[in-house]
Every structure is written in C-alpha cells, then in structure tokens.
Amino acid sequence: MNAFSNDAAPLFTAVSGSVRHLFQLLRCINFATKAQVRITPEGLRFTVEESRVVQGIAFLEKSLFTSYSYAPPANSQTADDDEADDTAVFQISLTALLETLQIFGVNEIKDRWASRDPAYGGITGALGRGGGPAAFRDPVLGVKGVCRLSYAAKGEPLCVLLEEAGVTTTCELVTYEPEYQEEIPLQRDALTLKIIMRSNWLHDAVNELSSTSPSRLTIAASPSAPYLVLSSNGPLGSAAIEFSKDQQLLETFQVPKRTVNTYKHSLIKEAARAMSLASKVSIRGDEQGVLSLQFMIEVEDFGVSFVEFRFVAFLPEDGEDEWESNEEVS
C-alpha cells in the first residue's frame, strides 16, 4: 500500500518545511543502525540503544512540522488495559532514513573540533561558542526542502516524500516489530545531581580529556569544592577538569552529597554531535548511577528541540582495574 494514496486515510501524516532540521536532529543519535519510533499525539520519539548501556532519544515535537495528524489505532486499548495506549511503535533502519533525508544533499563544512579529534568532526561549521541555531541556517544547510511523512497502519512501511526545486522523491522504509519497550530508567525522585550548563563547555571538557586516549570517564560532584570534576586516565596519562560553582558557569547546581560515577568514554563520545549543536545541557544522575544528558537544541524559526542520552554506570568485573570508581578526585 502506498501511504500517500487516497485509498484510505493513513494512521499518521506530517509535513516539515525543512528536511534539514529533521536530518540534523536525528543525526545526533546516529550510533546504531536501527531506531525505535513511537508516534504520539505530541510528536515523534526516536530511540536508539547499544547493549542496554546507552540510549539516545530524539523527540521531534509536532511544532517542528507545518502539519501533523495522528489518529491512534483502534486496537490501542484492550480489555486488560486500564488506560488506552495512544501510540504506535515500530522499528526502522535509522541509517536508511538518514540517507533518504539527504538525497538532495546537505552542505556541510567541518566544525571547529574536527582538526583536533576526528571523532568529534562532521558537524556543520557555522557554530558559535554557544552552539545552537547557526547549524540550522540555510547558508549551512543549503536550500530548504519539504518532507512529508506517512504511516498507513501497523506493518506498513514508513513513507518519506521529499520535494525540492521541483524534484519529488518517494521512499518506503520497511518497518519492524519493536525489540525493546523500556527506556533506561532514571529515578527522578532519587537524583544525586542536577546541573545545567552551556553545552559547548561540556563538549570542550570531554574533548580535552580525550587526549589521554582513556577508556573510562569519571564524573565527581560535591556540594563543596571541588564542585564538579571530570577526570580520565589512559595510556597517554591522566587528566582532570574542574568546574567552579559560579552561576555564570553552572546555571543550576543541585548536589546534596558527594557522588562519583564512572562511564565508558567511548559511550559518552556518542553524544558529541548533540553537544556541538546544543546551547544548554542538563546533567542528571540518580542513586543507581544512571547518567542523563539532556541537550536543548535551538532550531531557527521552530523554537527548541531536545535530545537525550542515558548511560549506565561502569561496574568493573572481578580482577579488572577499579581505579576509575575508587579514585578520589582532588
């Protein structure tokens, strides 16, 4: 079935006046081949994960689209359900979707970190020190294109229709049954830290720590000095970066007691693209060591969008070096 045909009204349709905005936001979580898509009345939620230790979540609010229509499936409520589930969930190839969205090409130049660490490269280079909407402007992204999305029913493909400069292309992406239902849980009622700061400062810090080729990154926060310390240790040495509690640096700082957790550095770097584009980042951690990095990304003419990463703390196995989790950061 072609979801753009007039045979039956599709379950979901949406139109975006700029395919580039969708491309840039989804590219932030492009560290896995498949993405789980949840269609809701409020927008589209794309989730990718790796081995249940890291998840990337991009929420495309309906305000990003010039039109957005979603009719929940008729079987969204069963006799055993107390409440109706007004969402449609499926998996698609994120790689294929991104390739489709850039069929007409995306003009990009290297960002200011590309020459220092290739792993951080590939972001549009019109970013200022605060990141943000410059990455979404036409001189960087090229001519605007129109993107139409449609999903007819469960089991049907996700149809993507692109229009630009009088040229129209239609692609149908195969949908799959969802493989996972739950996000990595963050205990919001048991947070051990909540910090809001400019995203590019976090990006610079992680980038500097990469110089030691570390396998782990430790985050230590305390209600007294030193307030926030990021540290790493690798074959090329050790490094630590300390942030003061100045409100100009840390907009929000809520740390009731000292907390130290270690994460795989390679997983933290998966969020580098979002760090580059975002203007602010909210850093939260709970008692189980789950780390949430929520990035606020400003999209010109469309307001703000949010991309979130969640990480499970590193737990060393028997006989493995435990310096990261036991080290006292001065």
Question: What do you see in this structure?
Answer:
The protein has seven helices and 18 strands. The protein has 330 residues and is mainly β. The strands form three sheets. The protein has a nine-stranded antiparallel sheet. Strands 5-1-7-8-9 form a five-stranded antiparallel sheet, with helices on one face. Strands 13-12-11-15 form a four-stranded antiparallel sheet. The longest helix has 11 residues, at 199-209.
How is the topology of this model organized?
Elements (H helix, E strand, L loop, with lengths): L11 E5 L2 H9 L6 E7 L2 E8 L3 E8 L5 E4 L17 E6 H8 L36 H4 L4 E6 L6 E7 L2 E7 L17 E8 H11 L6 E6 L6 E7 L2 E7 L6 E5 L4 E6 H4 L3 H6 L2 E7 L4 E9 L3 E9 L11 H4 L4
> What proportion of the residues is helical, as a percent range?
10-25%
Query: Low-confidence segments, ≥5 residues, pLDDT <50?
Result: 78-83, 108-130, 138-143, 322-330
Number of strands: 18
Apparent shape: elongated
Q: Tell me the distance between the termini.
A: 63 Å
CA gyration radius, whole angstroms: 21 Å
Q: For the residues shown, what is the average pLDDT?
A: 83
* Number of helices, where a helix is a run of at least 4 consecutive DSSP H or I residues: 7
What is the strand content?
35-45%
For the biggest sheet, the summary is: 9 strands, antiparallel
**Overall SS class:** mainly beta
Strand order of the largest sheet: 6-2-3-4-18-17-16-10-14
What is the string of helix and strand elements?
EHEEEEEHHEEEEHEEEEEHHEEEH
